[in-house]
């Protein structure tokens, strides 16, 4: 069964406590927290104070996805805010290996995200240092976008790379994940699904999470 990581970017922020309580009651495994700086991506989301408050509501894994430039400046602050996994974008890291060393030294799991135009082959020399690879299946910055079909091919390539090296790397997909395409995403090699609109805009989010948990 895949890891299900609902993205709170799609949550109702006027009722954030209730949204967190719902996720805690559900079969969701992780809380996926998207941080945007308005520079790396053309949008601004929430930051450290909101994550600190969300952390207080749950014992589940806080999966923090940094869509920001110079993530190394903030890694320690996100650790202190409660991040369990810290994902940085390969496109934002001039010295990716150093970024990964920093994240691990702070006691967090390491994640690397790839935008739709970035080939998975760029991970070849650092894959052994990455706990999770996040494949963006939409262009980052906004929720509610449509899944890019070529993502399935990228997932298969990454799955081969990970299997050849016999690594336990988690393969996460973020963007346009729905009940209609989740099975094909898992079959292509994904082990973690980020779902925003399809969960939080659902008439019954807990039931939707349960259905996503059973795809594959």
Automatic annotation (TrEMBL):
Tell me one Pfam family matched here: Ribul_P_3_epim
InterPro entries documented for this protein: Aldolase_TIM, Ribul_P_3_epim, Ribul_P_3_epim-like, RibuloseP-bd_barrel
Keywords from UniProt, A to Z, are: Carbohydrate metabolism, Cobalt, Isomerase, Manganese, Metal-binding, Zinc
CDD domains under this entry? RPE (cd00429)
EC annotation from Swiss-Prot or TrEMBL: 5.1.3.1
Q: Sorted alphabetically, which Gene3D superfamilies does this protein's record hold?
A: Aldolase class I
- Which pathway, per its entry? Carbohydrate degradation
Q: Which residues bind a divalent metal cation?
A: 32, 34, 65, 174
The residues the record assigns to binding substrate are: 7, 65, 141-144, 174-176, 196-197
Q: One GO molecular function term?
A: metal ion binding
Co-factor: note: Binds 1 divalent metal cation per subunit.
List the active-site residues. 34 (proton acceptor), 174 (proton donor)
Question: HAMAP family per the record?
Answer: RPE
As for what it does, the entry says: Catalyzes the reversible epimerization of D-ribulose 5-phosphate to D-xylulose 5-phosphate.
Write the protein's name. Answer: Ribulose-phosphate 3-epimerase
Task: Give the organism the record lists.
Answer: Pseudobacter ginsenosidimutans
Query: Encoded by which gene?
Result: rpe
């Amino acid at each position: 069964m895949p890891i299900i990581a609902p993205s709170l970017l799609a949550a109702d922020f006027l009722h954030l406590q209730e949204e967190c309580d719902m996720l805690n009651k559900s079969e969701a495994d992780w809380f996926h927290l998207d941080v945007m700086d308005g520079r790396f991506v053309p949008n601004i989301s929430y930051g450290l104070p909101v994550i600190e408050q969300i952390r207080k509501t749950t014992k589940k894994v806080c999966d923090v996805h940094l869509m920001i430039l110079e993530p190394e400046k903030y890694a320690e602050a996100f650790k202190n805010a409660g991040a369990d996994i810290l994902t940085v974008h390969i496109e934002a890291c001039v010295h990716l290996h150093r970024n990964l060393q920093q994240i691990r030294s702070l006691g967090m799991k390491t994640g690397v995200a790839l935008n739709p135009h970035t080939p998975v082959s760029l991970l070849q020399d650092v894959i052994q240092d990455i706990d999770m690879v996040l494949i963006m299946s939409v262009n980052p910055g906004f929720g509610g976008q449509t899944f890019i079909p070529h993502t399935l091919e990228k997932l298969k390539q990454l799955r081969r790379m990970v299997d050849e090296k016999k690594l336990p790397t988690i393969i996460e997909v973020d963007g346009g994940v729905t009940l209609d395409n989740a099975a094909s995403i898992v079959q292509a090699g994904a082990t973690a699904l980020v779902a925003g609109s399809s969960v939080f805009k659902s008439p019954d989010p807990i039931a939707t999470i349960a259905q996503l948990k059973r795809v594959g």
